[in-house]
Amino acid sequence: MKLHTGDTVVVISGKDKGKSGTIMRVLPEKNHVVIGGINMRTRHIKKTHQEAGRILRYEASLDASKVMIIDAKTKKPSRIGYVMKDGKKVRIAKVSGEEVKKIRVPKAKKETKKEKEETTAVSAEEKEEKAKVKAPKTASAKASAGKQPFWKKMQFGSGVDSQGAPDEARSKQDHSIPSQNIPPKTSGRGS
What we know:
- The chain is α+β, with helices and mostly antiparallel strands and about 190 residues long.
- The protein has helices at about 115-135, 140-145, 150-155; strands spanning about 10, 20-25, 30-35, 40-45, 55-60, 60-65, 65-70, 75-80, 80-85, 90-95.
- The strands form three sheets. A six-stranded antiparallel sheet has the order 6-3-2-1-7-8, with no helix packed on it. Strands 4-5 form a two-stranded antiparallel ribbon. Strands 9-10 form a two-stranded antiparallel sheet.
- Strand 1 (about 10) and strand 2 form a beta hairpin.
- The radius of gyration is 35 Å and the shape is elongated.
């Protein structure tokens, strides 16, 4: 493929005809390129229990035949040719004959195993520090901090009830239904 990441190109056909931008990604197996700010698409993401719904705008790929490289010297669209210089194959712009310089776009650095271990060790230390800060003060809270059912963590079964004293036997507590203020029924419709 003659186009490379970082090349400045202009769109020669389609809805974005005349617009220019730099190539962000090249898909040689499909003969497509992705250009920053060109061929924008909108995707609506449905809300879930974990996330709110949102609208994503992204650049879709475009066929490479719909773009031409911009010549650095003349600032006009140009085709790309190849010439041998010093035993190396070099890209040139057909309009001016100038060499098309390949711009190095920094790739996302992949973490090595050692770096991953360092970041996980740091995060484990941070988690321990946060756990110490959030550590419960009372003995009953310390006991409940371990792995327990949610209803014990929420103190539903802790013996502290709003109806009676915490040490009072369950059989001696008041289990009567509280009085309810229900308005009297009226007869007839709408009255």
